[in-house]
Amino acid sequence: MTSSSIRFLMCSPDHYDVDYVINPWMEGNIHKSSRDRAAEQWQGLFQILKERAVVDLVKPERGVPDMVFTANAGLVLGDDVVLSRFYHKERQGEEPFFKQWFLEQGYTVHELPKDLPFEGAGDALLDREGRWLWAGYGFRSELDSHPYLAKWLDIEVLSLRLMDDRFYHLDTCFCPLTGGYLLYYPPAFDSYSNRLIEMRVPEAKRIAVSEADAVKFACNAVNVNHTVILNKATDDLKHRLAAAGFEVVETPLTEFLKAGGAAKCLTLRVTEPVRAEVHASAAIESRVVRMEGHLLDAGLINQALDLVVEGGGSFQVLNFNLGEQRQSTSSAEVKVTAPSHDVMETIVSQLIDLGAVARPQEVCDTNLETVTLAGVAPDDFYVTTIYPTEVRVKCEWVKVRNQRMDAAIVVHDTPTGITAECKLLRDLQVGEQVIVGIEGIRTIRKTESREHRNTQEFSFMGAGVSSERRVELVVEQIAWELRQIRDRGGKVVVTAGPVVIHTGGGEHLAKLIRDGYVQALLGGNAIAVHDIEQSMMGTSLGVDMKRGVSVRGGHRHHLKVINTIRRCGTIADAVHQGVLTNGIFYECVQHHVPFSLAGSIRDDGPLPDTQMDLLKAQADYSRLIQGADLILMLSSMLHSIGVGNMTPAGVKMVCVDINPAVVTKLSDRGSVESVGVVTDVGLFLSLMVQQLEKLTSPYHLAQMV
Ligand code: ARG
């Protein structure tokens, strides 16, 4: 192509000024630019460009100071132009002037629906070989505009997500160059977009700029054949561009930087050749999800919309029916758009966790795929959560059984009806039908209405480390619950780590077991070893528990203890033989409280009761958890996380740990069913025992009547 056939549109800066703030560059710069210097700098660019191409001019208009940035007029390809729809009302006044210019020049003007922002060539850049269109979103242009570009311009659109508000338009950080080269600033994009760029542009053609160049708008360059015109570039960048065969022409545009623009922004290329062999395609996907519940009170709608945006998608709320009474629920339909199928699946599966349903009406059956290799699910299998889940089979919602986290859902068509159940990967059998994709799946979230939330919320995380008084308060409440559960014959499961013993909580936990407050105990080798060491030798890991000092040779105590139990056979045998006479495990044996000890790589011994086959240990745990009303997690992160994964929502969890991070991790089940207490577990148990005593004391009984 000869230079003379290349045309640009510019607009003289007669009315240019920084009048408002719509990007970070404009902050602090209101009326700070000099119109004379701006005019001079603009002339500089204009002359350079005129030597290399034809420059058309559009008449500057009063009241629209940013009209100099003609890149934002629209996007041209061949005889078609997609007119911009500005995101900010401050610039919307430019639209009719640009529209008129395009019409006068004989372009076919395409206009996007109202409220669908797209800022023209500022956010959409053609590959210089004409193979595809790079389109930005995240700040000014909406992802939903991209399919229109693909349709109207009949070209493949590659969507790139902008992450850094200093680089709010694609052309501020991205510039395709002749010969398939690309000048760009990678940190301005999310990782998915970077991957997409790397897939399309070979490494040898990617010219990544430093932040120093990026903030001088080096990527906001005008490329005419082998010339790159820009505000400023470091020597390093100039060398690299030269090595790729480009001549760099610098021209100061500092007055325009104050408005967040430079060379490229001040121009619009209006001759973009159409390649006959390229055609429309956009990987962009949209789907409608429906949500229902206390969307506002429980903050679900915000969470959902945040999640869409954080996940790299965009949304449009199609309708929102606000529940009018306090107790009534709201419903909403949200159209989610994602730049690719993968991103869509990730976003929607997270939305499902929040209780959203994808295409509820149309889906009669979830997608099923057959297991072809035992213990391996089909690629796209739906990963379960702790929330009660239902799946669509033969136009009916079927409740999934054995709900747990991180499983696959297997659907059986039995003579007595359809069933669905959670199955661990390792348990999948050849021929089984597993749910894949995200359609026709819903999770039932108990979303709390306003009052429910206020009365139930007594988690300690907000306050960081809980104060003593607050620990007392929460202990009172849990003690009361433990009493209720015991009295109605319910089930409390305890997971405990050895810290229970080190902090002096052993005797208190033993008492809880003795008094019937614990129906199953889960732990590892360590808690049992330390408990037994403490009851047989008075030490825990060799430290005298009464005096708090190390006992000479005490570090061998725990091995002696393990050896003793091994000689007896099992812990229960040791109790029956009179060798073990007190402590947590003694009480378990005496009161027929089942326990399971899961082994680990660093276990000494281990005790004969420790299950070193972890799959068996997991199965034991999950059996003992069945039917639990409350799980008390005492300073054992690993065992507690394991338990958390196996436990469906609805089971109350109380997690006690001195480390706030552990408490947060474990109690973050997105519901009020879990309570975190950041405190010393020994102290917690001793307060708990005291509180339970109080509940039975005559004084307390008198108070209750
Ligand atoms: N002040 C203008 C805005 O924020 C600057 C536009 C720069 N143009 C561009 N294509 N990046 O909209």
CATH topology of the largest domain: L-arginine/glycine Amidinotransferase, Chain A
Class derived from helix and strand content = alpha/beta
Q: Give the % helix.
A: 25-40%
Q: How large is the count of helical segments?
A: 23
Major sheet: order of its strands? 21-26-24-25-23-22-27
Total discrete domains: 4
Shape: elongated
List cofactors, ions and other ligands.
arginine
On the 0 to 100 scale, the average pLDDT is 90
Proportion in β-strands: 15-25%
CATH H-tier superfamily of the largest domain: L-arginine/glycine Amidinotransferase, Chain A
Q: What is the CA-atom radius of gyration, in angstroms?
A: 34 Å
CATH class of the largest domain: Alpha Beta
Task: Identify the CATH architecture of the largest domain.
Answer: 5-stranded Propeller
Main beta sheet strand tally, sense and closure? 7 strands, mixed
- Count the beta strands: 36
Q: Low-confidence parts, pLDDT < 50 over ≥5 residues?
A: 449-465
